[in-house]
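Researcher: We're teaching a course module on how sequence relates to structure. For the next exercise, students receive a sequence and then see the predicted structure as tokens, so they can try to spot secondary structure elements on their own. Here is the exercise chain.
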Amino acid sequence: MLSLSAVFTSCKKWVDINENPNSANSTIPTAEQRLPPLLAQFADAYESSGTRAAFISQQLAVTYAVNNNWNLTRWYSNTSSANWPWQCWYVNSAVNVAPLIAAAEKVEAWHYIGAAKIVKAWGFGTLADFYGMLPYDEFDNKDILTPKFDDASHVQEKILALLDEGIADLQKQQGPIAPPLSKGDILNKGNVDNWIRLAYGLKARYLNHLSKKAEYNPQAVLDAVSKGPQTEAQSSVMQYVDEGPTVPSAAKEALQYTNTGTTARVTKLYVDYLTNNYTGAPTGGANMSDPRIPLMIPHSTDKAGNLVRSRGVDMASDLPKTGPLGYTYNANTNSFSSPDSQYVVMRKTPYAPTAGQRIQSTGTWYTARGAKGLLLTNAEMRFIEAEVKFKQGQAGEALAAYKAGIRAHMAHLGIAGTTIDNFLASTSVVQDANNLTLSHIMIQKYLALSYSPELWVDLRRMDFCTDASGNYNEAAGVYKGFKRPSHVFTEAYPNATDWPRRFAVASYEINYNLVKVKEANPNADKPTYLNEPVWWDKK
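Model: And here is the predicted structure for the students to work with:
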């Protein structure tokens, strides 16, 4: 009996202290195991917000079909199209921050704690600017099934403090048994300095959002910019991994490759900005084609094998009301099923063309398999600097920052240094500081932030291309040529002065938390809610 007692006692102890590492359990994963999926899911929420912003911001059009993406091009973000960034952040990302921090605290892995706090600040900051209000204080309380909605202004206060905490944690000495950050960091490969620069870059971004507000502090913005990324290597860039030439891994594939699919198309506005075809664009006797054009606009080959640039969809024309149409390619006749093939698909097709095979699309740098996600870069810092310096009347410094921003973006795209030098010396770029305008700066930033949720923030801050009354004005507006789409969702934008100011509330909250939603904003279930400015957008 003593022997049996010993056996049972031992078994009980074994059951008590051992857990199956292959079975799902909230306490098992370590900090270095938790960080990779957190970063991947955050990137999905962030870049999926960016794709939606690209449709709203007229970088992307779509082939005709009454679906979510077509609705986004008419500035109608319904509760369904609003769901994925919300779900991906809250369900897949935000709830995993606290467990990561708890696991890291056990081994004094301060660098993991710092990274987790920065990701939390980044995710909430992005979605607060996107939706205008969301649960923050009560989102992670298991006892509250219907959390209150906090205004984005409250969220900004919280995330700025989180960024400071993250910086402080990253500057601490790791504990003796703490895993190195490189073991779990799929974004910055364990480079602590990059994480600190990322935090300061985010501070610069969020502080600059206040440009319409009395509390705007341009010097604080510049101070943060100076501590943010200064080079391509110091930027936070997500490298996606797509496995195989035909069947990429959905868990690792490039987000814009996935999100744009086979229906997205470039717009005329996007093409015009890249080709300097807008009011007041720099020009002269030594013009040079922008070397980013073949990387950012898809091309196809004609029957003779010549590369032909995609035509851009004119969002102010009647075309988006019923087109462009999708198309197919017939190899037997070497022809397309529709003349709308002039609006070229964003994905490279065929993926691996053989010699002499007709190229249906060259694809783009952003929508390629194995692409990179430019999440926060030195290029963005330079354009923020250029904007602030320009507004301060420091034209020479603004011009230098404007050129540095173009250079940095081209470098990220892999363009050769000599080509960049030649372009920056051409008359296709402003050379005289006295001729530099805010439009020149912001249009170049618009290109450098392609498919980023931040580009829609800038459009709202700059009031699109309107005058003081809110009406479209080609002469006074910043984003030249940015007009209301012909198929605009009139229920939400009944007046010519109405522009897209916030995203719809996700259907989950409308269906299950409507009381708290309407406590935060009684108009949240009305179409015109979409043209209500978020807090920093109010003058």
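Model: If you want an answer key for the exercise: The mean pLDDT is 93. The radius of gyration is 25 Å.
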